[in-house]
Specification:
Layout (H helix, E strand, L loop, with lengths): L5 E8 L3 H8 L16 E4 L2 E5 L5 E6 L10 E5 L4 E11 L2 E9 L6 H22 L2
Antiparallel strand pairs: 1-7, 2-3, 3-4, 4-5, 5-6, 6-7
Length: about 130
């Protein structure tokens, strides 16, 4: 497979990065801000299961808790397609920057890739609204 086109979608949040990481990295909290997981996550061994709506059930595995702000997660669709998602929370002065690296999947056209980026931006804005006083 060749290298996929990537787009980094990010947002600044006026809150200490550790607080944002502690909240955002908990799978139980993700339905509050990550609309693709709005149906909720149910633990299944070392993974989590979510109803992905039109794409069916998805299996999500998260990076272990860490001190680096890494919330990477692997999403496996019912079709067997595996999507690697890189999500980071990094210190930025008294606040932080939350960055999601969106990789364009092989079957995505320009419109779908742009819509996916808009979707991620809305999710990060929802996280910001939950985290800022």
């Amino acid at each position: 497979m060749s290298t996929m086109t990537a787009r980094i979608v990010h947002i600044g949040i006026e809150r200490d990065w550790r607080a944002v990481y502690a909240f955002a990295s908990r799978p139980e909290n993700m339905p509050l801000w990550a609309s693709g997981l709005a149906s909720g996550l149910v633990r299944d061994g070392d993974a989590w299961i979510a109803d992905g709506g039109p794409i069916g059930k998805v299996r999500v595995r998260f990076a272990p808790d860490n001190t680096f702000g890494v919330i990477d997660h692997t999403v496996t669709l019912e079709t067997g397609l595996v999507v690697e998602n890189a999500l980071r929370v990094v210190s930025n002065g008294d606040g932080c920057e939350v960055m999601f690296t969106l990789l364009r999947q092989p079957d995505m056209d320009d419109a779908a890739f742009a819509a996916d980026a808009d979707h991620v931006a809305k999710d990060l804005a929802a996280l910001k609204s939950l985290m800022e006083p």
